[in-house]
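Teaching soon. Got one?

===
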Amino acid sequence: MEIDRYAPTFERDDVSRLLGLLLGDGTFSLTTVLFTNTDPALVQDVASIVKREFGAHLSRSKHDPISYRIVGKRGAVLKWIRSLGLDCHTAGDKFIPEGFHNLETVKGLYLADGWLGDDAVQLQLKSHTLINQVADILDRYGVHYNKYPIYEYLRLDTAGKYNVDRFMSVVFGKDPDQLSLNRRYNIGRQDVYDIELEGAHSFITESGIVAHNTFFIGTMPEPVYVIDTEFGSRQVFKYWFPDRDINVMEVRVVAKDPTKTDAEATFSNIEQAVYTLMDLEEGTIAIDSMSDIYGWMNEWVEQTVPKQTSKKSGEKYMMRTEWGKRNARYRNLVFQLISRPVNVFFSAQPKEGYAGGEGTGEFMARWLTQHDHWVDVVLHFDKWLLPGKPPRYPTTVDKCRMHRAPGMRIDDCTYPKLLKRLDDKFGLRIKGADYVNLAKQIKRDELAIAAKLKKK
């Protein structure tokens, strides 16, 4: 019997970390194992492990400079992946095979697909099996997290200094300041923003992709203040707009029960952040997202309002008028913002409408129903994935109070592009905007984006 001297020794930490990196940023086909990542240190780590353990090496793809095929030594890595039952598994059905349910595998996954921010660590994956396996491993070591769905994805969210320090100590054996994880995922959601017009006031935008909509916020007038409920925007701004005056205020407070958010404490943080910005006379305020706030306010009512007991059934119930307290607090927050002489941007996650117990296929923003009536323009951000072509990000006007404009589309919409299209189409101008240099600004943004994409 032939013995393959390049077969891995499963008890070695390096092999488990390699598997985690490949589960996060690897592609497994019938004939190839591919690793895709922009971090030179991680690429070097993979190269060192596959050479030492399998006698293989990385070969850079001719078509994608950040992708590497793992080749050599009779396809040893591919045979290993097949032996684990992972060949041909896509992002939605990957899993941790038996023998690799350990911290080194988790470390590799977080290095590939995790994100580390101020007092928060996140991992978001399409495979529910894989994310649940990671959660089980974290549970064994007493690492707290929130787990919740984001469309077809599941996210693990470890928040708060104590919890993050515990995570970093257990998984990495390091202080949080000594490690930087990369945010690499895109998720859909709806966005809304307010813009002060000459003679009119306020805009709204809906739907889209997180990187696209967060990018839009980054193109709005400085200084930009983002009230972030999801720990999701800081890294996007840091990468795309390192020289812009963008300030992120993270407000979510995780409850002692790691599956819940402390709704009252979180909303108090949000109200305090809004109060702090009340003297702002220029720039932009963004809330990302109002859907989270709407959900937390529902929790706040459930937690704080005393329930009545039915005399007939003996069941507990809540007076319908109690929901008015939620609505009043929500409206006050919104009106405090749109009353300011600044640009205001809201985001909201979409929800599908239902009729007769079945989905209608039509989506609306998940927030208080009246929200879109308080503003003047509604935009719908979307993402189109076309075979063999790069993604497209069309933006459609769903509502314009001043003009009939449904169906007007703006590709790769940024704030300057929106200003130009509204001016060209309707003669609507944003107060204080520099229309003389608008075309130059749009061109400058396009060149900066192209340079970043080329560098990646």
About this structure: Residues 190-455 form a domain with the Rossmann fold fold (CATH 3.40.50). The longest helix spans residues 438-455. The radius of gyration is 24 Å.
